[in-house]
TrEMBL record:
Record's keyword terms, sorted: Kinase, Receptor, Transferase
Molecular function via GO: kinase activity
PANTHER family reported for this sequence: WALL-ASSOCIATED RECEPTOR KINASE CARBOXY-TERMINAL PROTEIN-RELATED, WALL-ASSOCIATED RECEPTOR KINASE GALACTURONAN-BINDING PROTEIN
Organism: Parasponia andersonii
Protein name: Wall-associated receptor kinase galacturonan-binding protein
Length: 243
């Protein structure tokens, strides 16, 4: 719609900012997600949650930090860990202590209550997706959230330079064996046109098996990379739409 690719799952709708085919990752944007410049209160953010059957094929990357803001003392985040708040921790060098330095906190009256634990819940609790398996602001009784990710080995100084968004790793069912064989020979798994479902992209040439077969055959047909990427986009869109 309006040349904008949207991604729809149970927790809400997200704009797709980037598709990284090499690493099979999507970068998603939630318009109600807080950043370093603005904190969006009122529990309006989507967070991130998928159905259990879809979880094995789509999950935020380990280097993605979720920072939950304004959570109630009754939040499930803090139950079972009296006075410790064990789930809260930095992820890939990103966390609330640095995030508190963002100008957005000046606009909401930052008090840092409980930031040292013991005086009530902290205003911000940073954690990985793996720690709680779902970011649902209503169930967690939180007012807002932010999400940032790290593209190792790139490191930036300060939260103003973080990449804000949700970076999600995806996999396509039924193609693991083909892709493993392709990647083992230095190729990148993809999809083609003209009735060819799977392609192993090997530099300027492509193969329907692996890159070793390209090297050993000078007569193999070369599929234009533009067609290959077009087919990959169409396949991914069809997969996201039907799931």
């Amino acid at each position: 719609m309006n040349d904008v690719l949207m991604f729809h799952i149970s927790s809400g709708s997200y704009r797709v900012l980037d598709i990284d085919y090499a690493y099979q990752a999507l970068t998603l944007h939630d318009p109600h997600m807080s950043t370093c410049d603005a904190i969006v209160l009122g529990g309006r953010g989507n967070g991130f949650a998928v159905e259990p059957w879809r979880a094995p094929y789509m999950t935020p990357v380990p280097d993605n930090v979720f920072m939950l803001i304004g959570c109630s003392a009754r939040s499930p985040l803090f139950q079972g860990f009296p006075g410790k708040h064990l789930p809260c921790r930095n992820v890939s060098g990103m966390g609330c202590e640095e995030y508190y330095g963002c100008p957005a906190w000046d606009m909401v009256g930052h008090k840092r209550l409980g930031s040292t634990f013991g005086y009530g819940p902290p205003e911000c609790c940073a954690l990985s997706f793996e720690a709680i398996k779902a970011i649902n602001l209503s169930k967690l009784e939180c007012e807002a959230y932010s999400s940032a990710y790290s593209l190792a080995p790139l490191r930036v100084d300060g939260p103003s330079g973080w990449s804000y968004g949700i970076r999600v790793k995806y996999s396509v069912q039924g193609h693991e064996e083909f892709c493993r064989a392709c990647e083992a020979t230095g190729g990148t798994c993809g999809y083609g046109t003209e009735g060819i479902r799977q392609l192993c992209m090997c530099g300027s040439s492509n193969s329907t098996s692996n890159c070793d077969s390209v090297k050993s055959s000078s007569s193999r047909r070369i599929y234009p990379l533009a067609d290959t990427f077009a087919g990959l986009i169409m396949s991914l869109l069809a997969w996201m739409t039907t799931m």
